[in-house]
Amino acid sequence: MPPALPGDSLRQIVRASRVADPDYTKVSAPALAFFVIYETTYIPADAGAELRARLLKRWEEYGKPFQQHRIAHFVRDMRKGEVIELHDAEHGDFLQAGPVQTRTVREMRRFLFSES
After folding, report:
1. Which residues are within 8 A (CB) of 1 and not within 5 positions of it... i.e. 6 or more apart?
2. Would you list the domain boundaries of the chain?
3. Of 38, 40, 37, which is closest to residue 84 (Cα–Cα)?
């Protein structure tokens, strides 16, 4: 396969996320959603000023609103849904021993075993 053109990967991710946008209104069971919240985008250590500015602009215009939209969509449409936001975390952190995994397990147990 030829190498991806700049932006192709991002376009594919956005397209796939729109197609995979679940219809939460059809779910009647309680649901717990964990969202990793990024305060900013990843910027490579060797990024020059121009690239840094482009990445930050893209984050502000697309990344952050997309993140907020996903949470708002779940909250709005999931009748028995609850959101847990994980700040200062990475997507794989819940797999490794540490504060994110500890909180994830604690929240899951609370959700599963609480009387509602």
Report:
1. none
2. 28-113
3. 37
Answer for the pair 32, 49: CB distance below 8 angstroms, yes or no: no
> Across the chain, which distance is largest between two alpha carbons, in Å?
54
pLDDT for residue 5: 52
* Distance in angstroms (rounded) separating the CA atoms of residues 32 and 111: 7
Return the pLDDT at 1: 40
Axis-axis angle for helices 8-19, 64-77 (nearest 10): 10
The pLDDT score that the predictor gives to residue 6 is: 56
Run of H or E including 37? strand 31-37
Alpha carbon distances (Å) from 58 to 5, 7, 64, 67, 89: 17, 11, 9, 13, 21
pLDDT, tens digit, 9 for 90 and up, residues 31-90 = 999 999 999 999 999 999 999 999 999 999 988 998 999 999 999 999 999 999 999 888
